[in-house]
Design a protein that fits this description.
Blueprint (H helix, E strand, L loop, with lengths): L4 E7 L5 E3 L3 E10 L3 E16 L5 E14 L4 E9 L7 E2 L3 E11 L8 E9 L19 H37 L6 H31 L3 E3 L4 E3 L3 E8 L5 E18 L6 E9 L3 E2 L6 E3 L5 E8 L8 E3 L2 E13 L5 E10 L3 H9 L18
Parallel strand pairs: 2-9, 11-20
Antiparallel strand pairs: 1-3, 3-6, 4-5, 4-8, 7-8, 8-9, 10-12, 12-17, 13-14, 13-15, 13-16, 13-19, 18-19, 19-20
Length: about 375
Amino acid sequence: MINRCDLTIEFDEPSRRYKTGEEVTGFVTVDVNKDCRCNGLQVDCQWRTHGRGNQSTGSTATDNIFEGEWTAGGVHRYPFSFVIPNGPCSYHGHVLNVDWYIIARANIPWSFDPWEEADFLVEPGWNTAYEPYLTGDPTCSSNASLEHRIQVAQSGELGTVIFGFAFFLVGIIACLNFAFDDESSVGGLIMALIFSAVGAVTIYFGLRNRLATIKLGEIQVQIPQKRLRAGGIVEVLIDIPPASRAHLNKITARLVATEVVISGVGTNKTTHTHIVYDDPPHTFEGSVDRELLEGESAHFSHRYRLPYDVPPSFHADENDLNWSIAFHVDIARWPDWEQYRPLEVLPADPRAREEEQAIDDDDWSEAPPLTEDAVW
């Protein structure tokens, strides 16, 4: 079946590379094959995820650029123009990709609606330093969302304990059954013991932080700036009010960026993750081989620079690029304390980056580059 018309999209910028805040312009060309009426030639500017997760989209603008009659053999060019919002930027990772598209669709009555799309790249622009950066779903980057993710991380400890207890209980029951069953196999008993061991280890990791607080008291973690730009200074604070005498081996913190996407629906949902950035642990000054006395609070702080070339946070339905700081308190002869705290990373200020490159500045940290499969 021949389409009544064919659509093509042309960009005024041949490279198809744009910065946030710039205008993406071009033409939709309509090649008419049969006489027809168009109830609307609609052009959308939108971002879309693709990769291993379910697709998420975000439409920033829609424009109806024509409505009327087309005659067979005619060729028509209609201009389009959209201002690119301040994010999200294009991102090409391992299990998550974010790309921008111009999509043209002609509404032809009693016929298949012809459509065409063309992708383009969006990079951080000068407006990133002055306007709120859009990470996809704005509700996911709010203060309430950050606090909610902290609560989810902490509540996950209880879920780990419950899961581990279930494994441990099943293993113990199976061990007892095999112990009193003369016809039981050695292999079955070994499997039951493995179940019990896995459950016990899982319970330990779920209770580890609670065990650590017996020595250290309720550890207070502060991140004064929960939203920081690439190239900015990361500052973290830890207060420990020892509940009893304890010896610290050291306290470390490291930044981690993880792609998290979900594929499938219902009971067939699968979560895929990939770490795209994981810097070496940074040791808090004064925390190495430190003796803590009961009732004498200890305060630790550390600051270092985040590299300029890291990707910004991204949040959408079932597709995320999450940043967090992993804290680890190493206690001598006692279970360690570990916790992840989420934060938002925004694109670097282009002016600051250019100034940084022009100055032979002392390096704040030996942070690793992004993995080769994560380019944005």
